[in-house]
Amino acid sequence: MKKYLLCLSAFLVAATVQAQQGKAPGPNVIFIYTDDMGRGMLSEYGQQIVPTPNIDKLAHGGMRFDNIYGSMFCAPARASMLTGYSDVRKGKFTLNRAGIYINYLQGKLTLPEVDERLAPFEQSEHPGMVLPQVFKKAGYVTGEIGKLEWGFATSRRQMAAHGWDYYYGYLDHRMCHGFYPMVMFENGEPVRIAGNTRPDSYPDSAALRNGKEKPQYAEHLFMDKARRFIVSNKDKPFFLYYPTNLPHGPVSVPAIDPVFAGNPRLTERQKMYATMVKMVDDNVGAFMHLVDSLGLSKNTLIIFGSDNGHWLYYEGKQPRYDNITTRFYSDDGADVFNGNNGLAGLKETNWEGGVRVPFICYWPGKVPAGTVNRNLVAGYDLLSTMADLLQVQVPDRKDGRSYLPSLLGKKSVPRDNVVFSSFMGPALVTRDGWKLRTCLLDNKNIFQLYHLPTDYREMKDLSAQYPQKVDSLKRELTKACDGQLQHGIFYFSRLPATAL
């Protein structure tokens, strides 16, 4: 009995010490979040030109989600995912305009002035936890590397307040689409990048020809920092959020990959874009190899996803679509890659091609290998799922719900619906595949109804045939939009003017 009590006492002491040290109950998490990656660009979803074997390996060894929705545009997608609120809500997060850090780089503003101008728009619009705070509460080390946080400009104060132990990357979207940054921000401090000369991060052609310092490509900088973060925290529970700006335009790479160099089907711009997508896949492979080499594979959840649907940075001028009676289809010949997987529409629209995204979770021994999850899922479900995984209580009522049971191969009840905004108006998709999409611009009051299980390409509007269904879904969508459908329209003109 005495021996039993001693063992029990030792166990309780160890458990107490572990709790005091903030030992996390779950795995390390690496979340690779791509920018404008249409699901059709991945060979797992049918891509024929660009091989993506490493992402395929994630899917074959883990779970592919086939019915998951991001947002129609990058900034609301990121804010929605990180806060756990849908992007049709009013006042749950603020999206600042881009450009204020360009003014800093040009000497027009100091960094304290930048912080001051952004401060009023970052403080308390989200009263509860954001994603990194969930991990912090569970005892994790948190890091973000790449296209930082949400909105089109992010303050250093916001990065610190949201619980990032380490961050490196862009704080302004005007800087993050050129791939050759003049400055990156590391834990609040500007870091000058040797060889890069332009505030907008575009390559300087004269410097490329004559400069002594070789220009440095953003993705290479990001991967170096990501490796360092993982290695330095290999003995601690860590969360790495890696929001790469690939394969967002403009099309730009240091060199075309040899796999595509001799392809007669592709233009030079298409070869460069294919190289950008392949670089994403190569880096996924690098993450997997690093985790395996450190002996962390069985205790690391790798998540791969995208913010929104596909966009044609590599094609010429495209035909105009009214997005009411006419819509874009890749396989009409306008897109050599079929990047939106045959879905209607592109980024910025509330067609499926603008909002349905790739999403894969890989955790050997925990997530069933080679499975396809067809439950209805939203990008804003991630926070609730991670809180469920880590046994963290979230104080405020989020729009997201946990899909952890289905992720672990157990039965679960899918959510009733998903909602998302667009430049035209909001839309709603139900668990049984009914979709109500709106067009509310220019005094229009258009509601279209589609049944996605029997109409993958959204070609047959059923609103006249099922008016009662339209009315019931309209009520659900209006409720989700806090009582006004106009909350689901994205307007650049309504963003706070912080840059000047």
From TrEMBL:
Any one Pfam family match given in the protein's UniProt record, by short name: Sulfatase
Gene Ontology molecular functions: hydrolase activity
NADP among keywords: no
Keyword field: Hydrolase, Signal
Ranges for domain Sulfatase N-terminal: 27-391
Entries under InterPro entries matching the protein: Alkaline_phosphatase_core_sf, GAG_Ulvan_Degrading_Sulfatases, Sulfatase_N
Signal peptide segment: 1-19
Gene3D superfamilies: 3.30.1120.10, Alkaline Phosphatase, subunit A
Identification of the protein by name: Sulfatase-like hydrolase/transferase
Source species of the chain: Chitinophaga oryzae
